[in-house]
Amino acid sequence: MNPRTLLILGGYGNTGRLLAQLLLQETDVRLVLAGRTVEKADSAAAEFNSQFDGERVSAGYADAADVASLEQAFDGVDMVIVASSTAKYAREVATASLSAGIDYLDIQYSTEKIAVLQSMSAEIERASRCFITEGGFHPGLPAALVRYVAPHFDRLDRAIVGSVIKLDWSSYEMVNATAREFLEEIDDFATLLFKDGRWQKARFLGMLDTISMDFGGEFGRQYCVPMFLEEMRAIPEMYPTLQETGFYIAGFNWFVDWLVFPVAAIASKVWPERALEPLSRLMVWGLNTFSKPPYGALLKVEAAGEKAGQPHTLDVTLYHPDGYTFTAIPVVACMLQYLDGSIRQPGLWTQANLVEPNRLMHDMQRMGVEVAET
Predict the structure, then answer these.
(1) Alpha carbons 135 and 146: distance in angstroms, whole number
(2) CATH code 3.30.360.10 for 142-323
(3) Tens digits of residue pLDDT in 265-309
(4) What gap in Å lies between CA 192 and CA 171, rounded to an integer?
């Protein structure tokens, strides 16, 4: 069987390049690195072809806002991986994917994108295409972590997932478009948590429902606020004994957390378009200026319940020193299962609820994610 061809939209960006490198390292796929700047795609393709045998990487032009451009780029491709800051064009990319008869995976967090893809779910299933959304670290792993620990219990009562990301943002190409996309989510940001057997809205944007989670080592104990991820919605249905679950995230730094985000929350109501550009620049400056060591990205699940008639707890922590790499590794681990056919099935899926969690953990650890269980 001929190797599959994958197109990475945004393949020359921070995460796109890491995805390409790991896919070339772990699989025999052929890659097309695509975006609106062909010169950058050509340069990245040449660099990878010098590192890996077989001339497996080529460059292409694709504009996420232009369905015709996408359909042309998707010709001869088996799947598109969306690694660009183009969540607002989810319908265009999904439509072009269905038109071209190819599968789809994205690594974007966007409530608007989720709604668009859910509105197309019947069409996706009829076309027998496999669409995987919410790939990466978070979203992408929290629900998978709960699924990983659940078999260690006879009764699972509590499963809380928390995350902390501390990056040296000044060393990355943090463009305003990425910050703008994140800030646009503030307006639709859902602070839901599952407690007392039901999903409920957190109080005052989550600030009155913070938790304290010990991430260990230099990171220590951090206050985290609830952040609803679509992948978590199905968890209480999978494990009906659960009384408490949810995903919580620690802040970036004092300037972004206590100045940029509150101002953005207000500005998104008063000046929804005019405020985004200056706030995006302010966020980039705040991340570059005030983010301090220690650096790294962690994800932790704290689970409690019963085993063999006795109270039982299990904590699992995942760590990588680089947040962008930690985003790419779970996607490639998911792709290993997709490429061998073990998880490919028609429909719309979140990465965390589609993957086999034990294999996912093993492959992530092999690719550099540190795993600790206590």
Answers:
(1) 16
(2) yes
(3) 777 667 766 767 788 888 888 888 888 888 899 999 999 999 999
(4) 33
- Sorted by sequence, the CB contacts under 8 Å of residue 317 that are 6+ apart come out as 215, 216, 298, 299, 300, 371, 372, 373, 374
Alpha helices in the chain (DSSP H): 14-26, 38-51, 67-74, 90-100, 111-119, 121-126, 142-149, 176-184, 235-238, 254-255, 261-270, 276-290, 323-339, 351-354, 357-366
The answer to whether 104 and 79 have CB atoms below 8 angstroms apart is yes
pLDDT band at 316 (very low <50, low <70, confident <90, very high): very high
Q: H/E element holding 106?
A: strand 103-106
Write out the residue limits of the CATH 3.40.50.720 domain(s) in the chain. 5-137+324-363
Furthest C-alpha separation in the chain: 63
Structure tokens belonging to residue 68:
């015709």
Alpha-carbon span 300 to 38, nearest angstrom: 39
Grouping H, G, I as helix, E, B as strand and the rest as coil, residue 1 is coil
pTM for the predicted model, two decimal places: 0.90
CATH superfamily, domain at 5-137+324-363: NAD(P)-binding Rossmann-like Domain (3.40.50.720)
Q: Is the pLDDT of residue 175 over 80?
A: no
Domain with CATH 3.30.360.10 in the chain: 142-323
Residue pLDDT, tens place only, 8-44: 999 999 999 999 999 999 999 999 999 999 999 999 9
Question: Which pLDDT value is given to residue 18?
Answer: 97
